[in-house]
Amino acid sequence: MLSNKQLKYLKSLHLRKFRQKYGILVAEGVKTVTEIFDHPGSPIEGVYAVQEWLSENVHLVSKYRDKIFAVTENELAAISQLKTPNQVLCVLKQPVFSYEDEDLSSGFSLYLDDIRDPGNMGTILRIADWFGVRWVFCSKNCVEVSNPKVVQASMGAFLRVKTQTVSLQELRANYQGLPFLGTSLAGDSIFKIDLPEAGIIVIGNESVGISEETEQLLTQKIKIPRHPNGGAESLNAAVATGIICSVLQRF
Amino acid sequence: MLSNKQLKYLKSLHLRKFRQKYGILVAEGVKTVTEIFDHPGSPIEGVYAVQEWLSENVHLVSKYRDKIFAVTENELAAISQLKTPNQVLCVLKQPVFSYEDEDLSSGFSLYLDDIRDPGNMGTILRIADWFGVRWVFCSKNCVEVSNPKVVQASMGAFLRVKTQTVSLQELRANYQGLPFLGTSLAGDSIFKIDLPEAGIIVIGNESVGISEETEQLLTQKIKIPRHPNGGAESLNAAVATGIICSVLQRF
């Protein structure tokens, strides 16, 4: 049984401003929470689970005793942001990363230029995770990673892939020798260019693609060519990211 | 102003059973409806638009006079399935295709094995459309193409890509010489195999992948290898489809 104070706090996390104030993200559902427990050093603040989940996870309950709280189905529904809550909700400290101490020139990173759809953002984190891309940088207008739909769609990738909000200008200034690749209608086919060994892959907004301002900062324009018999106007941003990563990270 | 009969009919289309009964799909929003008008021979049954859209599209209004109905914002909200309706809603006869008259052995087709998420289904149609894949076959448990979220996510691709519900057994029996490729953990890397010139690409369900029963029907098992530094358990089904299509349809 949760106290009123706990309930109030957990409900406040439905709002972005409170997640940001407390530096918190919320992960829901059996699958994601299991990944959190499996991930070494997950910054778990609290786990709120129904009795059924607790009974099946006794080993965790004993290990994290002071962080696990039994809740009723009704309480879970009240604190959950899902239409159909799934047994357990976990509150985590949002990890804060800074690329300054890292060497980005040994591999590929992603830069997301105004990705607004949380499903796309989460799916892109999952793609980065699959293809061993360690850093996903975000422009300030991207949907925030603490958005529950991002967490959900990332399928645990938010635990492993590092993210930071930073301007492309700053990255470009700090990594002057590095290729900055981005998609453009005027670009060269990704299947025909000499592939660099490392660099920043810039992914544009879902509706308008890469802005003119951003395009100025690219060192190489690429494209995924449409088939001569193809009709679609564009590819989904996450799908394009997947294809580019698959080409660049091939091994 | 819509009659009660019209309102009742349009609201009934929120339910799958009535869309199926009437053989109808509903497309919403300025962008999708513009694509419908641009597509030759779109089987338009009715267009329901607010005055603002009608004023901006006078040429269409005169051409399709007897099919276009002015609605108020409130009426549009009542017949729309979107949270924020976007000026215009279009009712179309659902095109019915049959592969029997076609030659599938001259290129690649997709077979979707229980794709349940409408966003994925729509995105896969968009991918097929981009890469010039003309046929997307669906197992009977796939989300139906007339689902409004499928229509929305397909960004007009539902007009150009042919779909049909059919069992994989039937396709396999009718195309005995054709490669049937599908992803499997035990598959060969898509980046290393000799690529066929044509065939059926089988895409598995979002949670469980390709079923054992389906795997029996494949002639070649493939996989998109995970990077040695990668962590994710899997890729999103639409992203995997995009990567496989980009590899097979490269030109």
Strand content of chain A: 15-25%
Q: How far is it from the N-terminal to the C-terminal residue of chain A, by CA? A: 52 Å
Query: What's the order of the H and E elements of chain A?
Result: HHEHEHHEHEEHEHEHEEHEH
Overall shape of chain A: it is elongated
Largest sheet of chain A: 6 strands, parallel
Total strands of chain A: 10
Give the oligomer, counting copies of the same chain as homo and different chains as hetero: homodimer
Strand order of the largest sheet of chain A: 7-6-5-9-8-10
| SSE class of chain A | alpha/beta
Q: Helicity range of the residues of chain A?
A: 25-40%
Nearest-angstrom radius of gyration of chain A? 20 Å
Residue stretches of chain A low in confidence (pLDDT < 50, at least 5 long) are: none
Mean pLDDT of chain A equals 93
Largest interface chains and counts: A-B, 39 and 39 residues
Structure overview:
Two copies of one chain form a homodimer. Chain A is an alpha/beta fold and 251 residues long. Chain A is built from eleven helices and ten strands. In chain A, the strands form two sheets. The first copy, chain A, has a six-stranded parallel sheet with strand order 7-6-5-9-8-10, covered by helices on one side. In chain A, helix 7 (118-130) runs parallel beside helix 8 (148-154) and helix 7 runs parallel beside helix 11. Chain A starts with a helix and ends with a helix. The mean pLDDT of chain A is 93. Chains A and B meet through helix 7 and helix 11 of A and helix 7 and helix 11 of B.
